[in-house]
Amino acid sequence: MRFTLRQLQVFVAVAQQESVSRAAVSLSLSQSAASTSLTELERQSNCQLFDRAGKRLSLNALGQQVLPQAVALLDQAREIEDLLSGKSGFGSLAVGATLTIGNYLATLLIGAFMQRHPESQVSLHVQNTANIVQQVAHYELDLGLIEGDCQHPEIEMERWVEDELVVFCAPRHPLAARGEATLDELMGEAWILREKGSGTRLTFDQAMRHHPHALNVRLELEHTEAIKRAVESGLGISCISRLALRDAFRRGSLVPLETPGLDLRRQFYFIWHRQKYQTAAMREFLEQCRELTVGVRRSDEIVLPPIA
Question: What's the first-to-final CA gap in the chain, in angstroms?
Fold first, then answer.
């Protein structure tokens, strides 16, 4: 063959980082070694894989065709390396999860996975939906666990389990005694919401889109725990997943408000790149997630696995 696995590794890193210097750092190589490797790959193949604009490199049409094949080949090479060294084949796995899933499901799922396969190396990246989708699309993550829809043309989606948002307030709030609120009453409240770009905010905005008046949004926060604390402090009301609130509802530190006029249901999804080779670790982790939710109607009914 005219290329080496190291050359493909450098090519993939440069494609992801759009910079030889950043790719070199990610691979613990010198910049000159990374640059030489990429130059040799293009010279030996008598082709160019990148368009160059100053120090920035972006994949050209041929490079975009080669990238998924290179990523798949490197994944398969790692599996072979693991098998040759006596491992089970469950190597590295990079999972991205949106905040609700990441904070209340994914950590325990990954813990259970690593108990079954202690030789595996798993990383969890918790970010909002838009960032997870972008990283899966650029092969920076093997799998994504997201809340809400994804329209990216390169992303494969699989339905996982239904989730539902719920409006909630502090126990001393005037609406708490009734336990429900009309749309008109909601419009008069101060709101503490997730930031735009999150799956939670998208679902909430979709549910409210037909109401003619703008909400009084007092705060936008990136973390559900911060939102819960702010509502407990009496700064306003909010709307996040029931999954994130089930312990607070049991304790009585927060109170759900039923809103018959709003459809706050949504779906959790698995996502991966359409052209990505599914490693044994990916397949095993997906199957474990599916097993956890067999017969479960909604995310807040999931019985989480105990971690010893």
Answer: 48
Q: Could you list the pLDDT tens digit for every one of the 308 residues in the chain?
A: 788 999 999 999 999 888 999 999 999 999 999 999 999 999 988 899 999 887 788 999 999 889 988 988 888 888 788 777 666 556 789 999 999 999 999 988 998 898 888 878 899 999 988 899 999 998 899 999 998 778 899 899 999 999 999 999 999 999 999 999 998 899 999 999 999 888 899 999 999 988 767 889 999 999 999 999 999 999 999 999 999 999 999 999 999 999 988 999 999 999 999 888 888 889 999 999 999 899 999 999 998 766 55
Element (DSSP H or E) covering residue 291: helix 280-292
Pairing of strands 121-126, 143-147: unpaired
Nearest to 74 by CA among 279, 232, 298, 242: 279
Q: Which of 215, 213, 217, 235 is nearest to 226 (CA)?
A: 235
